[in-house]
Specification:
Helix content of chain B: under 10%
Shape of chain B: globular
Order of helices and strands of chain A: EEEEEEEEEEE
Distance between the termini of chain B: 36 Å
Helix content of chain A: under 10%
Structural class of chain A: mainly beta
Radius of gyration of chain A: 13 Å
Number of strands of chain A: 11
Number of helices of chain B: 0
Structural class of chain B: mainly beta
Distance between the termini of chain A: 37 Å
Strand content of chain A: over 45%
Shape of chain A: globular
Number of strands of chain B: 11
Number of helices of chain A: 0
Strand content of chain B: over 45%
Radius of gyration of chain B: 13 Å
Largest interface: A-B, 21 and 26 residues
Oligomer: heterodimer
Order of helices and strands of chain B: EEEEEEEEEEE
Largest sheet of chain B: 7 strands, mixed
């Protein structure tokens, strides 16, 4: 079983749509959780951290369910510029390393 | 404040040659991480270094790969006797002392082995 699992997509949605991505992780000792965005052939960039209380940044909302070991990302009012691969990332403090999911590809169309 | 710098951005090698990838962390960061992204796959942790020390190399292949972060100069990821399967994007990240979970990524080096 992969440490971090994501649906690879692609998710093809029209502009203005709401889209949700899910992710599960297997290591219950994981401490911190993030969503990164990766554009084609570019480096990953931190989109937002994920907390149990949920956090929102503009059109983006992230949520963590520790009991189910489940992370989600909701994007409202999708823009063309949101087209990218969204990476679910888990940090394990004992190893000081980030573990990446394979990513979910989003394509927003006119 | 310059971000994480990597060079070269693209590197072409023939099978059996050596590849040297360099990474300069953000100013003030003394923690460096190397990740590899194979085509159509996620990033995989390779090694975590601090100045002059390898902290965790659990993701490094047992042979041909080595990494260093000297007291002066950039971190180097060295791949000896490259094979086609080494073709990938290699990303370096750095973090400040106070938060190793906050890692900033460089633009990557794309290695192509012919």
């Amino acid at each position: 079983r992969k440490e971090v699992e994501q649906d690879p997509g692609p998710f093809n949605v029209p502009e203005g749509a709401t889209v949700a991505f899910n992710c599960t992780y297997s290591n219950s000792a994981s401490q911190s959780f993030f969503w990164y965005r990766q554009d084609c052939r570019k480096e990953p960039k931190l989109l937002m951290s994920v907390y149990s209380s949920g956090n929102e940044d503009g059109r983006f909302t992230a949520q963590l369910n520790r009991a189910s070991q489940y992370i989600s990302l909701l994007i409202r009012d999708s823009k063309l510029s949101d087209s990218a691969t969204y990476l679910c990332v888990v940090y394990t403090g004992t190893a000081s390393k980030l573990t990446f999911g394979t990513g979910t590809r989003l394509q927003v169309t006119l | 404040n310059a971000g994480v710098m990597q060079n070269p951005r693209h590197l072409v090698r023939r099978r059996g040659q050596e590849a040297r990838l360099r990474c300069s962390p953000m100013k003030g960061h003394s923690h460096v991480y190397w990740y590899r992204q194979l085509p159509e796959e996620g990033l995989k942790f390779m090694v975590y270094l601090q100045k002059e020390n390898i902290i965790d190399e659990s993701g490094m292949p047992k042979e041909r790969f080595s990494a260093e972060f000297p007291k002066e100069g950039p971190s180097i990821l060295r791949i000896q006797q490259v094979v086609r399967g080494d073709s990938a994007a290699y990303f370096c990240a750095s973090s400040p002392n106070y938060s190793t979970e906050t890692q900033y990524f460089g633009p990557g080096t794309r290695l192509l082995v012919l």
